[in-house]
Amino acid sequence: MVDAHSKPSAAASLIHQIQREITEKPVRYVVNTHFHWDHTQGDHAYRLTGEKVDFIASASTKQLMSDLAVARMKASVGAVPQQIDALRARGSTLRLGCRKSFLRGPDRADGGIPNRAEELHVGVADHHVRQIVLAPRSGVRSAHRFFNGHSHTAGDIFVFCPQQRAIATGDAIHGFLPNIADGFPRVWPGTIDAVGHADFQYLMGGHGPLQTDRTVMTSQRNYIEELTGKVAEGKKAGLSVGEMQKRFTVASLKSLQSNGYAEFLVRTSEQSNAHFGKMLPLQDGVNANIHDVYSNLDRV
Ligand SMILES: [Zn+2]
To answer: Does the pTM exceed 0.85?
Structure first.
């Protein structure tokens, strides 16, 4: 299993679905592509099956988990009440039919909002850090290979299955705008280039749809490179983040305007948040990226 959902309850549903629809054999290995909560907090559910399961991550991810995961998890749980209030406020502006299904969302165990704070707390704080196996290159099976390189975080790994010509890429390559808050913007495009040498037909990112060609991967690579170049120039010229956010618009970024990338991102975001009403404009995401590239520009 590559990545483990954001909540043990969601992972538990998936474990049951695997048993029903794919195999009665237990999940033996869980690979955490990186340390972020929405890829790791479900690990606990695999432990609860009582089967022997090894959790695999890179050394950097293990380190980041012990350094940051508990603090990040506490922060994310602490933010939940305000998030629910904000979403309810947003829901109240929807038409009646949409509103009903929107308001049902937060009560679902596998819904988009982590409303079961105690569940999250136990999963990460007590189990995760101790259970990671430091074996990024030992291979789950000989058929699988891992690639390392700084990108979305310091420790992202990629799982490649040559027989299926499929690669799982976590958030280093996915169908949303990249999240650069913990990222390495200058070296990220090179890491994507290195991964691109693998012979895959199917790319499964941490968010967004299955990708059956390399269009989105290439667009994301080019977007990070273009934005990083612009922010580096702006920083050198003494521009503030706010000034750059006004200047580097969705319409002005070539990488967003090529190969339908901007439209793809908007569509994917709408599909992933079907009950949440009108989505925030793409420029908000670009602005967050500009802020994060500015902060992380010199990380290598
Ligand atoms: Zn992430």
So the answer is: no
